[in-house]
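Slide 14.
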Amino acid sequence: MASWDNLGELSNIAQLTGLDAVKLISLIVRAASTTRLHKRNCRRFAQHLKLIGGLLEQLHVSELRKYLEMREPLEQLEDALRWGYLLVNSCQDRSYLYLLAMGWNIVYQFRKAQSEIDNYLRLVLLITLVDNARIRDRLEYIERDQCEYSFDEEDKKVQDALLNPDPCTNPTIVLKKTLSCLYPNLPFNEALQKEKKETNVKAPEKKGSNYSKSKGETAKSFDDDGDYPKKQNDEYPKKQKDTCSTQ
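Slide 15: predicted structure.
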């Protein structure tokens, strides 16, 4: 916080509480246009702050306060601007004799005010650049994380079992094992019927995709042989033994 002497009542600072940096700069610019002495210094100071205000508007300073690491530097910048406003305001509230007597001291205060404001501004900009670099690094990491999507091998075995009803080549054991995990409380026949209904649900794929086509074929294989689940469950062990022995 700046510690300047002879700037009037410090209680005036409370009236500026709650104003962000851009609004404080606007107040200083307006006050600088109505000063009685040190007019040139006040207007130079105000012109310099207008440049800072334009930059802060581009940075959306009100949104920067949401970030914890930005709060303290912004508060320090705003505090320095409040003292800057009191400095400019003193050039219109004080008497001519006081301003003449304090002439060089007030010139020194203008230099100190601008230097302090610029230092806090650099700190705010530095933190902003660091945050932008972090965001770029995270974005690059996300772009490098290209996931490969494929048909799971276990799911492929189940699909083959559903599409091929030949007991010699059909891995029904895999099918039974999978369905028993999916539907632990259902008999094999009921689980297979439930799975059949699931295959009739339209898959969220683009029109004409191979995946949707295979799902349609799976459903059709069930429709063509409505007794398939029952036959597989009741006759498969015996039939497999007879037919596979001839291979």
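Speaker note: The longest helix spans residues 103-144.
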